[in-house]
Write a structure and sequence with these properties.
The complex is a heterodimer of chains A (142) and B (99).
Chain A: E1 8-16, H1 22-35, H2 40-61, E2 70-78, E3 81-88, H3 111-119, E4 122-127, E5 134-141
Antiparallel strand pairs in A: 1-2, 2-3, 3-5, 4-5
Helix pairs in contact in A: 1-2, 2-3
Chain B: E1 2-8, E2 11-20, H1 25-37, E3 41-52, H2 54-69, E4 74-77, H3 81-89, E5 97-98
Helix pairs in contact in B: 1-2
Chain lengths: 142, 99
């Protein structure tokens, strides 16, 4: 990361909850990380983690069902800690049931949560403040 | 995502292009699976894939497993740096056929 790091920064955007929005989620994330002047490798990893978390909202909080709901993603940087918040109004996430599959059990699925945990320092599920139901917070020191 | 398929003898090469995420996995399966079911040796050229997420990786795993079941193989060719990084993060570089 370059020396001219912005010390306090925050941007948020909302997206329709469906799989076609994932490319918009990635574009938003790339734009934000461009402003923060992050290394390309780190940027790619963070974009992947964000897109996987957004995908989990579509797949798990909404069970791939059609909805007009929107989800919000907020990226903040303070004191070299990046915080990425995800807010949705889907089914409440049972955080005890959120786990990735065993990585040596080779089968399709269950990798998204593993990628998020590999990339980020911390993954915390919170109850969302109204009107939100779920609030996921990903953090990483950069 | 866009694609092109070339065939030479029993080898079918699928050239994938663009970003492979949850939104295009069904399309990717529709392209790849019939070739495996036709018992072709399938080469997937990933040189022009700029982004792949866990859904894309799942398609590669399913293709690999389907090929084993049908006694043929899927070989991943010219893997772009970004895709290779995700394959390695998933610890699949020893499992999938990287050619």
């Amino acid at each position: 990361m370059s020396e001219n790091i912005v010390t306090v920064f925050s941007e948020k955007e909302d997206f329709q909850v469906n799989s076609s929005s994932l490319k918009d989620v990635r574009s938003f994330s790339r734009e934000v990380f461009k402003k923060l002047n992050l290394d390309q490798d780190l940027k790619d990893e963070l974009v992947l983690a964000i897109a996987e978390a957004a995908q989990n909202i579509v797949k798990h909080a909404y069970k791939n069902q059609d909805t007009k709901d929107r989800m919000e993603i907020k990226i903040s940087l303070k004191d070299k800690e990046l915080e990425i918040g995800f807010f949705d109004k889907g089914r409440q996430v049972d955080k005890d049931n959120v786990r990735h599959r065993k990585i040596d059990d080779i089968k399709p699925g269950g990798l998204g949560t593993f990628f998020i945990q590999e990339i980020m320092d911390a993954v915390v599920f919170k109850e969302g403040d109204k009107p939100w139901i779920n609030h996921l917070v990903l953090t990483k020191k950069i | 995502m866009s694609y092109k398929i070339t065939e030479e003898g029993n080898i079918a090469t699928v050239h994938l292009n663009g970003e492979i995420d949850m939104d295009v996995t069904e399309k990717a399966k529709e392209i790849i699976f019939p070739l495996i079911e036709a018992k072709k040796e399938v080469h997937i050229n990933l040189s022009a894939v700029e982004y792949m997420d866990s859904s894309g990786i799942s398609v590669l795993i399913e293709s690999h497993q389907k090929a084993i079941e049908l006694e043929t193989k899927v070989i991943l060719k010219y893997i772009s740096k970004s895709v290779l990084k995700v394959i390695m993060m998933a610890k699949l570089e020893q499992i999938l056929n990287l050619g």
